Amino acid sequence: MNNSAPAFAAGYINNDGPKLITERFQFEDSFTLERFLNTGGYDGLRKALERKPSEVHDEVREAILLGRGGAGFPAGVKWGFCPEGVWPRYLVVNGDESEPGTYKDRLLMERDPHQLIEGCLIACYALGLSQCFLYVRGEMALAQERIANALNEAYEAGYVGRNILGQDFSVDIVLHWGAGAYIVGEETALIESLEGNRGMPRLKPPYFPAAIGLYGQPTIVNNVETLSNIPWIIDNGASAYKEMGSETSPGTRLFAISGHVNRPGVYEVEQGVTTFRDLFYGENFCQGIRNGNELKMFIPGGGSAPWFFEEHLDLPLEARPVGEAGSMLGSGAIVVMDETTDAVKACLRVVRFFARESCGKCSPCREGTTWEEKILRRIYEGDGRPSDIELLLDIGDNISPGPYPVAAFSDQNLEAVPFPPRQTTICPLGPSSVAPITSAIRRFRAEFETLITQRDSIPVSAAPIEVEQ
Amino acid sequence: MAYFTEENLRRAHEIIDRYPRAKSAVIPLLHLAQEQNGWITNEAMTHIAELTNVTSAEVLGTGSFYEMFKFHPVGKYLVNVCTNISCQLLGGEELLHHAESTLGITDGETTEDGLFTLEDVECIAACTEAPCFTVNYRYFHRADENTFDEVVAELRSGRSPLDKGKQGDSGDIPSHGTLSRIQQHIPLDRKAGITPPEDSKTAPVWMEKNAEEAKS
After folding, report:
1. A19-33, A309-323, A400-414, B182-196: which has the minimum mean pLDDT?
2. Is A66 helix (H, G, I), strand (E, B) or coil?
3. Is A166 helix (H, G, I), strand (E, B) or coil?
């Protein structure tokens, strides 16, 4: 059993489970066309081209492939939102991975760019998309190189471009880099950025850019991991795909488990049948919390997700039960924090992220996240005020009104509030900043109060202030 | 006003030709400008505006939204230390403080010799490999103070430290501004054809296969 991560696929750990999208990671040259073709590469595309486009779409719909970017919307259904008879249509690949805790799209782009390209081609064939833009996060230089090289190889060999595989199927795939902005991961902001604008989300409706997207045309936006699954699904069929995972979340998913575990890494995990406990403590996975410490809390789906605790360890890795329990699997980013973690500090750090990354379009988010950070910082630095806890919750309520999604607390007789939150903003960035605050205050209110009362015990102005005459 | 060199102007036109609308090339061209000069000058933005048929104010408006574009000189090597949650839990902030004292600069500053600029950055997608820093967006995974010192020493002596990145990346680290060392190139005879949306209002030919199904 080889459980160690090869140095060339840093972070990836083979757990002996089914491997739909990480099969080639075992090869050092997994990103080359030669290796790709020797390991079944472009077989899915060949099979797709033998069928009618609508049949390929049906196969993906049938597979219930849930989007892997965060929202978890079924890709086949999203594909169906393109209005009839409106042309041209575009494909935009969301490779702007930047949710705190998330590391899997970068790995897929660096280690198996041809698999992603094949997924793009199949999507373009199924929906009649005439051009594809592969939007890669600006900070990922190696991923850009690997994709550029893969596209050059694929164009040369006839897999991309004019008359692909000698057939009446022609699509250009253009590599596009971002330039540093988390919000561009929101699909309408991604489109704005691709049009050469500031990356600010568009007003809804329309809720899906499949109706009105890039240049006002129908546009499908899919995540890198979502598209990387398509070749396997077309090559092996939706029914084989559904044999893995659970009924509502079939197949596998990549989870990045970081923080205080003994063996952090990126694992391809069968959905539904694996629990958080398996993942954190299992011999094939993270092998326990460091130094034998107790678990304090964990983030189950990226910085935007409400926190979970010890009592949620037995939930399966499946979108629906996690959502009902008050959080989300989001982008497959799990951050584990042990008993030594300062809850206020962790909360402040996640909130600082959202305050920095707010695009500034909606005032509840622009002003709210900024104040959340300021207030948390003064609490953390010992300058908090007794009213600050309620103030934080009130600001959160202005961004995301009503009961905020949160885990159940049996000790406080509080039920779970299911995901997702409501919002007074155009996109979910603002509401995401509320997640760490409500989670931390509900569970660790005493830690906030201690920091605030400590401050009260310190004489603020021991000496009278001297006023200049 | 000409800003781009002859070779970069050729690349600029190749980039513009990949988009149905020229304005989409604004961000890629800002990267190209930064590659040429290490940071983005007013002359560069004026030239980009001419090439993409927008105003130079629009180029600045777009560019200033994005963190990677620098509108003032920065060091040859941009060192980004991640302090977001996964890195923070495993010593990212301590690594940043070490970097500050080693280089003698704080977040956003450049060393006097113009070699290093330091930044405290948000999540850079290496969370399981925390703590992590990058040099000109090249990764150094599971880094400690020793790794940092070694990387700085290698760069000061003109050698490539990429073998210390634990990522499978190799070769030299280009000066700040250059991201990918490989460019996409679409051979003209292989290009499917990129046109403005108003010039391609009919369904792609392969979609006719669906209609055949309806007839049969």
Report:
1. A400-414
2. strand
3. helix
A79 interfaces chain B, CB cutoff of 8 Å = no
Residue A52 is nearest to which of B30, B194, B213, comparing CB atoms? B213
Please name the residue of chain A whose CA is at the shortest distance from the CA of residue B178.
Answer: A141
B198 Cβ under 8 Å from any chain A Cβ = no
Q: Is A390 exposed, middle or buried (0-12, 13-18, 19+ CB in 10 A)?
A: exposed
Euclidean distance between CA atoms B146 and B99, whole angstroms: 11
For residue A459, is the peptide bond before it cis, meaning its omega torsion is within 30 degrees of 0?
no
Distance CA B186, CA A292 (A): 54
DSSP state string for A273-330? T-BHHHHHH-TTTT-SBGGGPPEEEEESSSTTSPPB-GGGTTSBS-HHHHHHTT---T
For A:12-71, CB contacts with B below 8 A are 28, 52-54
Q: Is A198 within 8 Å of B61 (Cβ atoms)?
A: yes
Q: Are B204 and A158 an interchain contact pair (Cβ–Cβ within 8 Å)?
A: no
Strand partners, A293: none
**CB contact (8 A) between residue B69 and residue A179:** yes
Q: Distance, in angstroms, between B58 CA and closest chain A CA?
A: 8
Residues A400 and A431: beta-carbon distance below 8 Å: yes
pLDDT above 50: residue A3: no
Q: In sequence order, which residues have a C-beta less than 8 Å from that of residue A27 and are 6 or more positions away?
A: A35, A39
Q: Which residue has the tokens 């926190």?
A: A307
CB distance B31–A152 less than 8 Å?
Answer: no
**pLDDT tens-digit map of A161-187:** 999 999 999 999 999 999 999 999 999
Q: Which amino acid would we find at residue A137?
A: R
Q: Which domains does chain A have, with CATH numbers?
A: 22-242 (3.40.50.11540), 252-338 (3.10.20.600), 343-456 (1.20.1440.230)
Q: Over the stretch B53-101, which tens digit does the pLDDT of each residue have?
A: 999 999 999 999 999 999 999 999 999 999 999 999 999 999 999 999 9
Residue B197 is classified by DSSP as G
pLDDT category of residue A409 using cuts at 50, 70 and 90? confident
CA distance B175 to A458: 51
A274 contacts chain B (CB < 8 A): no
Q: Is the dihedral of CA A113, A116, A118, A121 positive or negative?
A: negative
- The whole-angstrom separation of Cα A319 and Cα B82 is 29
Q: Where are the beta strands (DSSP E) in B122-168?
A: 133-135, 138-140
Put simply, whether A105 touches B (Cβ < 8 Å) is yes
Please judge whether B192 and A171 are an interchain contact, meaning their C-beta atoms are less than 8 angstroms apart: yes
- Using CB atoms and an 8 Å cut-off, which of residues 87-106 of chain B contact chain A? 88-90
User: Strand A252-259 relative to strand A265-270: parallel, antiparallel, unpaired?
Assistant: antiparallel
What is the three-class DSSP state of A447? helix
- A358 φ/ψ sector (left φ>0, alpha ψ -120 to 50, else beta): beta
For testing contact with chain B, the best of A349, A351, A358 (most B CBs within 10 A): A349
- Give the containing element (helix H, strand E) for B157: none
- CATH fold of the domain at B6-63: Arc Repressor Mutant, subunit A (1.10.10)
Contact assignment for A162 to B184 by CB distance below 8 Å: no
> Which architecture characterizes domain B77-164 according to CATH?
3-Layer(aba) Sandwich (3.40)
Does A157 contact chain B (CB < 8 Å)? no
**ipTM, 2 dp:** 0.96
| Domain boundaries, given as residue ranges, for chain B | 6-63, 77-164
List CB contacts (< 8 A) between A9 and chain B. Answer: 168
